[in-house]
Each structure stands twice: as structure tokens, then as C-alpha cells.
Amino acid sequence: MKLKTFKTVVMVVCILNSLLGCSQLTTISNAEKIYNSEAKVNTEDNLFNRMGGLTVIKIVVSETIDEVSSNPKTARSFKDLKLPKLKESVVSQICMLTGGGCEYDGETMINSHKDAKISTAEFEIFVAVFRESLSKHTKTREKNELLKILAPMKRDIVTAKELI
């Protein structure tokens, strides 16, 4: 009789454990679904995607660098640079900064610009060209969000001492 009772108890425990285990799995599964759907919404709503992703970033960067590298007022800063590599690096950095999941493995802004002696005037021309390209390919909200992210870089890029 004791063996039969023991088997019954074990069977009941196993059934309860299975039922509880399944309900916990269902709860975890539902929680994961909620988390993943929220993550998906956040990912889809990030600046990178709202701007149009890599396609738009590549266009904006290419247009900007092509124009400033050929402009007599800014060309000297791009004279000895490999423009395709520069474009790729800038695209990577913007992709990362806007939530696109890219990894930027380039130099810091301060290191890459320390010997360039870029003036405020050159920087402002670059920004104007960049803004114009952004205006053609993105909405105002996204353009302004990106510019706000990039604005603090000015102190690391402008290294020339201005004459007063």
C-alpha cells in the first residue's frame, strides 16, 4: 500500500510540476514576446531607421564629401585622404550614433583631426553642405536630431587658431 501511495504522490507531483512548468514557460514566452515586440518598435523608431537607414546615410555622406573635397575653400583638408575609406568611416560612425547597429572602429574625432588645422569657416562650410544634403534626403526632425548628436564634435574637429 505504501508503494502505491508513493507512486501516486510522485505522479501527482510530476503532473503538477509539468503543469506549473508549462504555465511558467507560457508566462516567460509571453513576456519575451512583449519585450521583443517593444524592442522591435523601439528599433524601428530609432533615428537610423527614420532617416532611411544605410541607403540614405551613404547618399548624404557621399554628396557631402564629394562637394567639400572639390570646393576650393575646403579641399585642402581632403587633399591626401582616401575618400572612399573616409566615406565608409563616416557612414559607419553615423550608423552607430543613430542606432543602426554598425560598429565604428575609426579614430576618435580629436585624433583624426588634430593635424588637419580645420578652421571654423571650413567647418561651417562642411556643416552647411551636410545640412543641405540632409534636407534633400531626410525630414526636418531627423536632420535636427542628427545634427544635435554631431554638434559636440566641433570642439574636436576645429583645431586651427582663428585670427581675430
Give a structural overview.
Helix 3 crosses helix 4 and helix 3 (about 55-70) runs antiparallel to helix 6 (about 120-135). The chain is about 75% helix and about 0% strand. By secondary structure, it is mainly α. About 15% of the residues are buried. The protein has 8 helices and no strands. The chain is globular, with a radius of gyration of 27 Å.
What radius of gyration results from the CA coordinates? 27 Å
Q: What is the count of β-strands?
A: 0
Terminal CA distance reads 103 Å
What helical percentage do the residues reach? over 70%
Strand content range: under 5%
Instruction: Indicate the overall shape.
Output: globular
User: What is the ordering of alpha helices and beta strands?
Assistant: HHHHHHHH
By DSSP (H or I, 4+ residues per run), the number of helices equals 8
Mean pLDDT: 78
